[in-house]
Amino acid sequence: MPKDSGIGASPKRREDVRFLTGTGNYTDDINLRGQAYVHFLRSDVAHGRINGVNTDAAEGMPGVVRIFTGADFEGVGGLPCGWQVTDRHGEVMQEPAHPVLAQGKVRHVGDPIAAVVAETYEQARDAAEAIEVDIEDLPAVIDMKAALKDGAPKVHDDLTSNLCYDWGFVEENREAVDEAIRNAAHVTTLELVNQRLVANPMEPRVAVGDYSRANDESTLYTTSQNPHVIRLLMGAFVLGIPEHKLRVVAPDVGGGFGSKIFHYAEEAFCTFAARQLNRPVKWTSSRSEAFLSDAQGRDHVTKIELALDGDNNFVALRTDTHANMGAYLSTFSTSVPTWLHGVLMAGNYKTPLIYVNVKAVFTNTVPVDAYRGAGRPEATFQLERVIDKAARELGVDPIALRRQNFITEFPYATPVAVEYDTGDYVATMDKLEEIADLSGFAARRAESEKRGKLRGLGVNCYIEACGIAPSALVGQLGARAGLYDAATVRVNATGSISVMVGAHSHGQGHETAFPQVVAEMLGIDESMVDIVHGDSSRIPFGMGTYGSRSLAVCGSAMVRATEKIINKSKKIAAHLMEASEADIELKDGQFTVAGTDKSVAWGDVTLAAYVPHNYPLEEIEPGLEETAFYDPANFTYPAGAYACEVEVDPETGKVTIERFAAADDFGNVVNPMIVDGQVHGGLAQGIGQALLEGCVYDADGQLLSASYMDYAMPRADDLPFYSVDHSCQTPCTHNPLGVKGCGEAGAIGSPPSVVNAVVDALQSGGHKVDHVDMPLTPSRVWAAMQG
Amino acid sequence: MYEFEFERPGSISDAVAALKTDEAQALGGGQTLIPTMKQRLANPAKLVSLTGIGEMQGVCVEDDGALTIGGATPHAVVAEKAAASYPALAALAGNIGDPAVRNRGTIGGSLANNDPSACYPAAALASGAVIVTNAREIPADDYFQGMFATALEEGEIITSVRFPVPRAANYQKFDQAASRFALVGVFVARFDDGVRVAVTGASEDGVFRWSEAEAALGSDFSAAALDGLALPADGMIGDLHGTPEYRAHLAAVLTRRAVQAAA
Ligand SMILES: Cc1cc2nc3c(=O)[nH]c(=O)nc-3n(C[C@H](O)[C@H](O)[C@H](O)COP(=O)(O)OP(=O)(O)OC[C@H]3O[C@@H](n4cnc5c(N)ncnc54)[C@H](O)[C@@H]3O)c2cc1C
Known about the structure:
Chain A has 787 residues and is an alpha+beta fold.
């Protein structure tokens, strides 16, 4: 019997009422009295020296308030990188300056050169056109391997080369891995591209800076997944504003997918300009600007080698990846190809020896950073593709090969430094075979063939590290921030509750799911609990939402704070009923004395806390409000098995997804409907990457896929009905809810199964194709069939 | 967007007069022109909307069986009103863009713009349509002059388009995944006196007729008649979405499919 409330129930998302009726409050809905507007003049060349910026004519244009250039930011800090990676040789990464407005050079198309603040947007744009910029074109470096050649033009003149770092992991394994590969019975090699993507949240970025001279306070309203991270980075590193004078508000946010984690120049600019001008300054990104200024995702070029012994056991794995950083280091860019990628290379398999090499490279392109999955999709894709290729080379069933090599005992310490606490990969694979009806595939293939279509089946597993992250561990690995989270449970006098959380909901449904947990713990109705998030002046200092961490980390803090509430309210109840605290039980919102019929209601206790006429004031304080900070002991490790069935039209190369099944182990599940939705969305993005999306620059660094005319987003009719299951549950062993995180799984787990399915279909048609790079456009698939 | 004047005349003659002023430009459904203006890539001093001109609206069957479509008729109206008389054309119109585009975008705007990936140019050329303007009548064979280039003079308005209705016809559109314009589209029209095949989306010279296919189909209207016929990749568009070789191949596949569907 499904529950109708509390943990495990699927109440409808309460936030959807305001989202679907147009009553949300997004950043662009915020308009402040006296607000001015900023338009950024952006570089239209990928690489150039700025010889001069003449704003004289523009200054005199109607409505212009002030024009800022790089010179105005000379005394101001640059945008910081939040993670320092140490390379194979023990050297720290090369870390270039990232000014708010370009200084000296422009380094990608879209790099902001000047900012025009005016009374209206149109006036700001008009004036920007009157700015004369004297830029001397420099040769651009776009291709990563070319960027590393001797004599390649340098993106940053003050660095020794375009190499950010050359990371080896685990460096001590390097020789043993080489040796094992040399001596292996079989080695499968695959070279592939994990193409660059644009995150494309539905709501483009917006920033409104405000300043109060009366109390020297700055406020930034911004489209962020983590207002406190922005307050920390912008306050401490860029503008030098102490925390108590800086408030960051991220109200309703229309999707982020990672791209709204980072601290961006436009946010710092609006905050800075509001102080300088003593009036609010607003920026709203156009979609075209988003293509040129939102951090982009993926962009890895990889060679992977999998070595097997004579019995098809995996004996070693070696990867060599070039990871594009773009022109500057975005906030978490450096951690993505390393600590979110290399440490996942074991996947679901007991490969004893693994070595990962990643060269991070500067190019004259938009910066790259975390995008849904962040590093883990890149790891999963190469691993699951090479396993599939190995199975085909060896003539064994791809599922059997995987099963044979599964990790089956937990906890399991991988050779790449992490310890999986729990999992059951056999169970998710069994579940997948059932829900995907794999036994019916042969009949479906025969039916497709009758219609002249090639049908293929692709299967893969995935593992990810979520619940980011244990602060002490990531600190050792180079993180410049803690990655705990925080929650304050404020019980009001009448028993209603506001929970102030550090996590930020921008589509995830926290406002519905988090109250389910608190209500269940207290035995009260969910409608009595509200979530407050997104405003640094209202919530405790938490780290926000990314890496599928909200419930696992912030939810754990919320549980701890609620436990404190329960403890204190039991003391109050004991006092009210003149009983011993140890005898008090809380059930269904009633406090009872064990073994008696004495009881007081939740509301009696909360009222007593605020009207402490009859209250143990000598023992405890009045009021009922508790805060907890939670730092996880380990990552969580969601895992699963996915299956995709495609049809390929052999005449046109067009791929259609006929069936898709996902069997996930997310540990315990609070709201199954929301989890379904998260998986559906992730699958849409993963299938989008596999078939449709691709961010492409030409050799001069012009973005060719700069609008929806050329950047193909998945639409409903590109996607099948999914079969999604999360009934295999091995609860996380180290957080109080036993939850693992579900936000990224779909995007991580789906691209390999799509490509595996297409390769299977093509081979079934007699084509000797063992790989096609994503996106699998009809043109590419057709070309692959031509040989 | 830059500032501009706006006029919405009620007759063709008023529109022609309004377009005589400096930097004036006709506005159909605005589905191409308005986005271009928003990006500040077009800067007309005045927009002359054609949507208020009654004589440029609607679909009617002439005495000789030809179909005349007013130059300011939106795609959605063509999809509905031409369904009985010229189903292949109605289906084409009903598959342009999304509902908003179909309710605003007009046949005149599409043909005036002559986007190399647009659908209507294939229908007009394959049907041997006549583009009727305020000044003259232009046969489709003379009208299309390359990507975004047409025989229209400055200020000339497409007031209607006259389509001879073929015995059988079909349009095969292969969507470009992002824009869902035609990556390649092929319109095949079979008349009593011959077959016309027009290909859009493929060539760097815009919509064109595939004369070898027309000749082969003229004597034998079947997919088999096309066996061995291929278009050269030379001169085809190559971009993110398809190579010239792919487009040439696709044009042949779609032609066969159109013939099969029409037969
Ligand atoms: C999202 C989207 C998807 C689309 N998908 C497709 C598709 O799949 N297939 C397709 O074919 N098209 C597609 N289009 C284009 C659409 O059909 C447009 O409507 C068409 O290209 C222009 O028509 P319009 O009436 O909007 O012209 P406008 O944008 O108003 O004008 C376009 C040009 O034509 C001129 N003009 C307009 N009317 C006349 C006239 N009567 N006489 C002379 N000049 C005139 C204008 O001055 C301007 O130069 C799409 C457009 C969008 C926005």
